[in-house]
Every structure is written in C-alpha cells, then in structure tokens.
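Materials and Methods. Structural model of 5-bromo-4-chloroindolyl phosphate hydrolysis family protein. The 237-residue sequence of 5-bromo-4-chloroindolyl phosphate hydrolysis family protein from Mammaliicoccus sciuri was retrieved and submitted for structure prediction as follows.
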Amino acid sequence: MKYNLSYVLGALLAVPISFIAFLFSVFQLDLNFLIDMAVFAGTYIISFLPIQWYSSRRYLKEMGLTRREFHFIRKQLNEAQPKLKRLYKNYMRIRSYKEFKNLNEVAKLARTIYNTVKQSPEKFYKVESFFYSHLDNTVNLIDNYTLLQRMPNKSKEEKAKLKQTKLTIDENKRTLVADLKELNESSYHQLDIEMELADIAKQRNSYRKGIPESTKEKVNLTKTHKKYEYEMERNND
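The predicted structure was written out as tokens:
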C-alpha cells in the first residue's frame, strides 16, 4: 500500500537529520549524553512527523480519499483479515474433492477482492457490501456447513438443510463473482481505451507506410522551392 511508504520516507529523511543534530549537540554544545540522546529523539520526531504527513497527504490525494476515509477503509480491511483465516481453516474439515474445489474457488474470490482493495483503497466503495455482509455471510455458512457435514447419523431433514445450505453457498459465490466484476470494471474500461489507442496508432503507421516515396519527394521539393522563393524575395527587399 502506497500510504505505508510515507512512513519509510519519513524515517529515511528523519534519521540523517536527527543524526546531524546529535553530532552537533555532542561536539559543539558539549552537553550531557542523555541530553544528546534527547536531542536526537526530539529532532527525529520533529522531522519525521511533517515529512510523513506531507507524503501521506500526497498519496491520499492521488487516491482521492480523505485521511478519515482511509483509516476507515484500513479498519475494514483489518476486520476482514481474521474472517479470511477462518475461511482457510475449513480446508481441514472437508472430505471430498468437489467440496475442496468449491471452497477453494470461494476463498480465491474473497482473497482477490481483499488484496485488490488493500492495494487500491479507493476501490473500497465499489465493493463495500463485501466487507459489510457478503464475506460474513459466506464465512458463517461455510463454517456451519463443514462442521455439520462431518456429524454422523444425520436425519433426512438435516441432510435436506445441508443441501439447501450448499445451494446458498453457491449463490454467495456468484455474489462474490459479481463483486469482483464490479471491482475490475474500471480496469477493463481503461484496457479498452488503451486497445483503441493502440489500434489508432497502428492504423496511422500503416497509412504512413502506404504513402509512395515519390509523393514524399514531391512534398519535400515543393516545400524547398517555396522556401527558396521566400529567401529570394527577402534578399530583393
């Protein structure tokens, strides 16, 4: 996440500044060593905070987010992380390849949405329902399904409920697919624009290659002749 680079940049610039202040305090002011260390720490904090604030402000401006919105999105990401871990734990409960494949598809969709928003926080509002309800609902259903599926001596009613739960999980998977599609819609739109620009550039190059050399020479000769006449008129004046 680009925002975290602001901390790295702040530290990289604050360390040499505070070190110079520390050396000045040691050799010029000749103070107590504890005071010298306090000068180092104080200079580091005074240097780090404005640098980090300014650089993070630039990143937030690029993303089109306020600092408050960014912290809210990061909070939602932090809350979603343990839910993904719960989803992965269900790999140990399933017993059939078909269930493993289905769970793997759901986990892959959820992980992709999470990582995409983590890398591009400005896309959070396109899939905020994923963080508010879709992920919770999917994880809870899979937790209960994988747990009850292992229970022996199930009645017909219990088997019917498990079957219905499995269908609901499939519906949730389609919802996650829709979330991912919404998340990537702008990227595909940008891809279409880039492809159109590439086609235009290709057509332009093809048109230039199709112009006969003789035509190019005529154009060049005409320009040279006009330039010669213009120079002659200036000399006569």
